[in-house]
C-alpha cells in the first residue's frame, strides 16, 4: 500500500466529518450550483433559520464556505476546493450506482 505523503489527510478528514451531516451536505451541494442568501437556504431546506444559521456557522468556521454581505443580506458560497471535490465525487458515485 502506498500513501501520498503530500496529501493533507487531516484536512480531508475534517471536511468529511463536517459534511457527514445531511443538512450540511445539502447546503454545500446547493451552494455548488449557486450563491444563496440565508433566507433562500432555509426556505429551500424547510428548516428554521436558527438551525440553518448554526450549520452555516460551522461550515464557515471550518473554511468550507464564506459569506459576503450585500446590504442587509449575507450571501454564501463554497470556497474550499477540497469540499467541492468531495461533494462532487459523492454525487458522481451515487449516480453511477
TrEMBL record:
It comes from Syntrophotalea acetylenica. One of its GO terms (molecular function) is DNA binding. The keyword Lyase does not apply. This is Transcriptional regulator. Pfam families: HTH_5 (PF01022). Keywords: DNA-binding, Transcription, Transcription regulation. Residues 4-97 form the HTH arsR-type domain. NCBIfam families: HTH_metalloreg. It comes from the Bacteria.
